[in-house]
Amino acid sequence: MQKIVLASGNPGKLFELQALLAPLQMTLLSLSELGIGQAPEPHRTFVENALAKARHAAAASGLPALADDAGLCVHAFGGQPGVDTAYYATRFGYEKSDANNVRALLEQMQGVQDRRAAMVSTLVALRSADDPEPLIATGRVAGEITREPVGDGGFGFDPVMFLPEFGQTFAQLPAEVKNAHSHRGRAAQAMLALMRERWL
């Protein structure tokens, strides 16, 4: 069974992606399992950050690597917070947390009529740190920002990300439905197809 390093310390992400990659007989290892620190993410695009994280993990481990960079892109804010999604609340004097991110976003969107937004996930996979042909898969889910949080499930901006196709927020959807249709789920399905085609 092939081992791949997931360039993330997020246990939820590891669990989600391990399940999605199970059909390929691949085992995902986390950075912490291998004693590898997090890579810096200095870039302004998801793909550059995911590539930097994958290169760092592959170089430190000597194994193939998979990395993900994801975030919320709000149309009225020119695509922001984008790569800074996790730290969004800190721009406005709040502590870093999901609840504060949601609060800050709703405050910033008061009086904004254009509520369009997208959750975006970019996955990058490398066979080695100097692989000249990284596999790149993107998943995107378009929706609208609600005026208040709705639902108890998920994490991050899920309670304010309304999906017209389901008539619910991500936080209202059952986990299996969310994972199948989320930005990360879509990116993972595309990555699965790329790995089958190019790596196996």
UniProtKB/TrEMBL annotation:
<keyword id="KW-0460">Magnesium</keyword>
<dbReference type="GO" id="GO:0005829">
    <property type="term" value="C:cytosol"/>
</dbReference>
<dbReference type="GO" id="GO:0009117">
    <property type="term" value="P:nucleotide metabolic process"/>
</dbReference>
<feature type="binding site">
    <location>
        <begin position="8"/>
        <end position="13"/>
    </location>
    <ligand>
        <name>substrate</name>
    </ligand>
</feature>
<dbReference type="GO" id="GO:0036220">
    <property type="term" value="F:ITP diphosphatase activity"/>
</dbReference>
<feature type="binding site">
    <location>
        <position position="178"/>
    </location>
    <ligand>
        <name>substrate</name>
    </ligand>
</feature>
<comment type="similarity">
    <text>Belongs to the HAM1 NTPase family.</text>
</comment>
<dbReference type="Pfam" id="PF01725">
    <property type="entry name" value="Ham1p_like"/>
</dbReference>
<comment type="function">
    <text>Pyrophosphatase that catalyzes the hydrolysis of nucleoside triphosphates to their monophosphate derivatives, with a high preference for the non-canonical purine nucleotides XTP (xanthosine triphosphate), dITP (deoxyinosine triphosphate) and ITP. Seems to function as a house-cleaning enzyme that removes non-canonical purine nucleotides from the nucleotide pool, thus preventing their incorporation into DNA/RNA and avoiding chromosomal lesions.</text>
</comment>
<comment type="subunit">
    <text>Homodimer.</text>
</comment>
<dbReference type="GO" id="GO:0035870">
    <property type="term" value="F:dITP diphosphatase activity"/>
</dbReference>
<dbReference type="GO" id="GO:0000166">
    <property type="term" value="F:nucleotide binding"/>
</dbReference>
<feature type="binding site">
    <location>
        <begin position="155"/>
        <end position="158"/>
    </location>
    <ligand>
        <name>substrate</name>
    </ligand>
</feature>
<dbReference type="GO" id="GO:0036222">
    <property type="term" value="F:XTP diphosphatase activity"/>
</dbReference>
<feature type="binding site">
    <location>
        <position position="69"/>
    </location>
    <ligand>
        <name>Mg(2+)</name>
    </ligand>
</feature>
<feature type="binding site">
    <location>
        <begin position="183"/>
        <end position="184"/>
    </location>
    <ligand>
        <name>substrate</name>
    </ligand>
</feature>
<dbReference type="InterPro" id="IPR020922">
    <property type="entry name" value="dITP/XTP_pyrophosphatase"/>
</dbReference>
<dbReference type="GO" id="GO:0046872">
    <property type="term" value="F:metal ion binding"/>
</dbReference>
<keyword id="KW-0547">Nucleotide-binding</keyword>
<keyword id="KW-0546">Nucleotide metabolism</keyword>
<dbReference type="GO" id="GO:0009146">
    <property type="term" value="P:purine nucleoside triphosphate catabolic process"/>
</dbReference>
<dbReference type="InterPro" id="IPR002637">
    <property type="entry name" value="RdgB/HAM1"/>
</dbReference>
<feature type="binding site">
    <location>
        <position position="70"/>
    </location>
    <ligand>
        <name>substrate</name>
    </ligand>
</feature>
<dbReference type="InterPro" id="IPR029001">
    <property type="entry name" value="ITPase-like_fam"/>
</dbReference>
<keyword id="KW-0479">Metal-binding</keyword>
<protein>
    <recommendedName>
        <fullName>dITP/XTP pyrophosphatase</fullName>
        <ecNumber>3.6.1.66</ecNumber>
    </recommendedName>
</protein>
<keyword id="KW-0378">Hydrolase</keyword>
<feature type="active site" description="Proton acceptor">
    <location>
        <position position="69"/>
    </location>
</feature>
<dbReference type="GO" id="GO:0017111">
    <property type="term" value="F:ribonucleoside triphosphate phosphatase activity"/>
</dbReference>
